Amino acid sequence: MAVRFRLRSGDSLVVATHNQGKLREFRDLFDPLGIGVASSGELGVSEPEETGVTFEENARLKAVATAAATDRLAIADDSGLAVEALGGAPGIHSARWAGLPRDFYRAMGRVENELQAAGAVTPEQRRAKFVCMLCLANPEGAVQFFEGTVPGHLVWPARGAKGFGYDPIFVPDGYDVTFGEMDPDRKHAISHRARAFAAFRAAVFDGGS
User: Fold this and answer.
1) Total-model pTM
2) How far is it, in rounded angstroms, from Cα 58 to Cα 92?
3) Residue 1 lies in a domain
4) Is residue 24 part of a domain?
5) Is 78 known to be catalytic?
């Protein structure tokens, strides 16, 4: 069931992630609001199997499972890179392309190999977007969704080590540097997660709009 949540400074929630890079971004976003953040990894909560076929379904699976396991309000995101020339791949499988243990340089190499195989060599042929779907859930299973996207194109070789995941090959529209080369504050202002968070803040945080 969908509901409308309200949060204010002094509240806390659990971020459904074991990814330290993602957790850092969430803390950077929530800290100015005075909202405390713990991660499911820090609390020893296992990550559920992501069996959904959309970003929304997987975000819901993670948020609902974490809220139920911790008996606390939980937020999850499902995010990924959607490449036009690859039919939207890797999409919801973005993390899986990195394998176990996670190796995103291998994943970025796979993206590049498939782009080369598709004959995608110009920036126009290498269009892509990052997608972030946030889901906020309570222990009873009520949810609310927030989406953010940022368009751009892919470059090779990878550039920069300030981000994580596919950041070093993604150049957002209007910029000539990759997310991996951007300072965190600059990236957070325009990223797909920041845009989804802005929708969250406007809808959920008292005084956030």
Assistant:
1) 0.86
2) 8
3) no
4) yes
5) yes
